[in-house]
Every structure is written in structure tokens, then in C-alpha cells.
Amino acid sequence: MKFFIDTADLNEIKEAAALGILDGVTTNPSLMAKVGITGADNIKKHYVDICNIVDGDISAEVISVDFDGMVREAKELSALHPNIVVKIPMIKEGIKAIKWCTDNGIRTNCTLVFSAGQAILAAKAGATYLSPFIGRVDDMNWDGILLIEQIVHIYRIYGFETEVLAASIRNPLHIVRCAEVGADVVTCPLSSILGLFKHPLTDLGLAQFLADYKKGNG
Ligand code: E4P
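# erythose-4-phosphate complex -> structure
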């Protein structure tokens, strides 16, 4: 399972990259706004900065909602760096744009996915990645992990090559459950990745080992 970090914060990206287990980065317009990156040129420069930190797939999201605008943005974003994957929303125009990108060698991440039906459409259009938002599904009293399991099951039956990228992850348990049901990728806030380290028995055991070493070695 690939690990992506879900942030536009360069310090967080550097911290996760330093662990040596980071495979990519996802961003969205809200995450860009959160770190104060505004204006088309600044946003593009920020994507390049991220590409220079992480050698892996970096999702850059379009803001157009019509086919022509999405295709224009897809060309511009994909030209920034070979690792850019163009993030396109799950709407009718988006599916048409994903198909155009597939036919023209531009890799895509279909975003804002909340159902298996939407997942089938994106795979048919040839999306490279599919981003079901599991935290937002959970927020609606539904089961985000069940959605990932259902999509993975359908994709395996038909051999779709689209990778299931579980997004909107809220905690470390989401990551473990995604691994259990076969997600190809998880994109996580730094806090959820760091949460995977936590276990009180690890801390207690390490303290005991160090104390015993000190007793014997001064
Ligand atoms: C990433 O691809 C998504 O845009 C992101 O995970 C959404 O997360 P949120 O539901 O916490 O905003």
C-alpha cells in the first residue's frame, strides 16, 4: 500500500518525506488556501516546490468545472513536472476530461468520490487514481471503509487498473482498515501517519531496555 501525505504544508511534507516511507502527495484548493497559497502562478510554483521535495506522484487539482477548462488546466498542470497527476472532480464534465486525459497520456486522480457507481465511471474513463473520501462518508453516518472494500472488490472482478486512493482519512485506524480491505493508496494528514507509531508498550519497553543497559554499563 502506497502512503501519500494529504497537505500543502511544505514543512509537513518534509517531515513525512524524512521518514523515508512517503510515496506521494495530494492537495486540494482548500489545503492550498489553508497554507495561504493563492493566485494561479503561486499555486503552480507551490506544486513544483512539492515535486522537488517528494519523488512520487503529486496530485494537483483543477478548478474549472467545464470540459474545455479542465483540459486546458490538465495540460498546464501536467507540463509543470512529470510527477504531476491531475485531480479532476467526479462530475459529467470531469469524466469526459478524464477520458480525454487518458487518451492523451495525462495521468489523473478522480476526486470527490462517494459511491461505487461513481468509481465504475472513473475506471471506465481510465483514471489513474480514484479518491473515495472515507472520512466525509463516515461523517454522514455511513461507512467509508465499506465503500473502499466495495470498490476494491468491483475493480478486482473486472481487472480495472485504476488505483483506489483512500482519501479524507481522519485517524490511524482508518489507515489500518484501508490496508485490511486492499486500498492501493492512502492519503493521510501527517497526524494520522505519526499516530501509527503510537503504542504505550513500545514506549515502556524501550524505557526498560535503556534503564537495564544503564544499570549494567553505567
Ligand atoms: C484528498 O485527496 C482529499 O481532497 C482530502 O483527503 C479531503 O479530506 P477532508 O475530507 O479531510 O477535507
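# post-check
The radius of gyration is 19 Å.
The chain has eleven helices and eight strands.
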